[in-house]
Every structure is written in C-alpha cells, then in structure tokens.
Design a protein that fits this description.
Largest sheet: none
Radius of gyration: 15 Å
Number of strands: 0
Shape: flat
Distance between the termini: 41 Å
Number of helices: 3
Strand content: under 5%
Helix content: 55-70%
C-alpha cells in the first residue's frame, strides 16, 4: 500500500508546498540569501514521467540529484 492514504493525498501535497513556502520566507528575511526553488523543474520532469524519487522513499534518485544540480548551477550562473 502507498504510504499516504488516497483520501489524505491532497492535504499531504499541500503540506509539502507549505514547507517550501516557509523556507522561502525564512530565506527572504535573511539579507543576501537567495532561495532556489527546485519545485517547478521537479514538477516538469515528473510530468514527463522521470522518476526523481525512489518509490516509497523521500530520497532522490540519480535523476533527481542531476536535476537539482542543474537548477542550482543555473541559479549560480545567473548571479545567485
């Protein structure tokens, strides 16, 4: 069985965005700190069927690590 009951999925996913938004707010309060949001890139890749996380686990696959590195490298190149 999936680790989250189907009836609880919407609340679970909303909580994931809440964590991201909380961290973004903390970073914005710090002078000189920049928040690099991986969410849009991860959502696009997931929509294409790319497996970014191991099933029933919170760890990234190699594809997840590669995508995160790419997004972070692009942010640095843009003057992060």
């Amino acid at each position: 069985p999936a680790p989250v009951a189907e009836a609880d999925e919407a609340e679970y996913f909303a909580s994931l965005y809440s964590h991201r938004d909380l961290l973004r707010g903390i970073m914005e309060d710090r002078a000189g700190w920049r928040f690099v949001d991986l969410t849009p890139a991860f959502e696009r890749a997931a929509a294409e069927g790319i497996l970014l996380y191991y099933p029933y686990d919170t760890h990234w696959t190699q594809a997840g690590h590669d995508l995160a590195a790419k997004v972070i490298a692009e942010a640095i190149a843009e003057g992060c």
